[in-house]
Amino acid sequence: MHFGDIEVLPIHGGTFYLDGGAMFGVVPKTLWEKKAPADERNRIRLAANSLLLRAHGRNILVETGNGVKWDPKLRNIYGIQDGDPLKDSLKRAGVPLAKIDMVINTHLHFDHAGGNTVPVNGRDVPAFPNAQYVVQRAELEHALNPTERDRASYFADRIVPVSEGGQWQLVDGDVRIVPGVSVIRIPGHNADIQAVKISGGERTLLFVADMLPTRHHLPLAWMPGYDLYPMQTLETKRARITEIVNEGWIVAFGHDPDFPAATLHDRHGKVEFEPVDLGK
């Protein structure tokens, strides 16, 4: 789909599974299981959704998914898809890893930045050797020194090699990255998570990562138990969903396995979604 001169392509980064209760927080299982059925281990199926932007002669990748560095135990716990689905999806789009000019990480949890690095000859190196990696400065600082509450979400070997390669492009707050592409802080899931906004040709898309992991998280109170600041998530969702509805924007979900993008509509006080095919 084109947004003016910017082409946006959906990139599938593979499927994985997380505990359904953790993904819906205080919402009772009797409610969320009707929307997202759980397996015998109480896990729900999710996707690592990414975007490829072709903008101003540059290839920009939003999110790098789970990556390939998983030992058998963790791969089993999270049900990580075998192989390298992100690399395969980029190959189908005609873009090898070396042709990515920029990576935008909404935040540095393993399911959004796990593909930042790859193992080569026994050491971890940036997966995209010619790219600058864009993230909020405060998010990188936190990722390198997480708390007991969220340290399981950050893997140093997906982060430190990018620092060693001098490839971070650190930003502070809401910033235009290139014409038509900007990042906007959407705090709640953590303090410095950012959305990616693409605008052009009278269209706008907002990639919201874990503010709305799936379409099932549209109700304001339906939010992951992983969120560090749930009351802030509530206010961020309230403001951003209203903006998306009123402005007629497209929203891209971070983990919806069936409908990565949609438009949102207020119908008699209830926000509903209509799927959008970004591949058209």
Overview of this structure, please?
This protein starts with a strand and ends in a 5-residue tail after the last strand. Helices cover 22% and strands 32% of the residues. It has eight helices and 16 strands. The strands form three sheets. It has a seven-stranded mixed β-sheet with strand order 1-2-3-4-5-8-9. The model has no long low-confidence stretch (mean pLDDT 97). The chain is α+β, with helices and mostly antiparallel strands and 280 residues long. The chain is globular, with a radius of gyration of 18 Å. It has a single domain, classed as Metallo-beta-lactamase, Chain A (4-Layer Sandwich).
Name the features.
280 residues, Metallo-beta-lactamase, Chain A, 32% strand, seven-stranded mixed sheet, 16 strands, alpha+beta
Topology as H/E string? EEHHEEHHEHEEEHHEEEEEHEEE
Number of extended strands: 16
> What would the principal axes of the Cα set say about the shape?
globular
Q: In percent terms, what proportion of residues is strand?
A: 25-35%
CATH class: Alpha Beta
Strand order, sheet with most strands? 1-2-3-4-5-8-9
Number of domains: 1
Q: What name is given to the CATH topology?
A: Metallo-beta-lactamase, Chain A
How does the helix and strand content classify structurally? alpha+beta
Helix content: 10-25%
Ends apart, CA distance between termini: 5 Å
Question: How does the major sheet shape up?
Answer: 7 strands, mixed
Number of helices: 8
Supply Rg: 18 Å
CATH architectural category: 4-Layer Sandwich
| Uncertain parts | none
For the residues shown, what is the average pLDDT?
Answer: 97
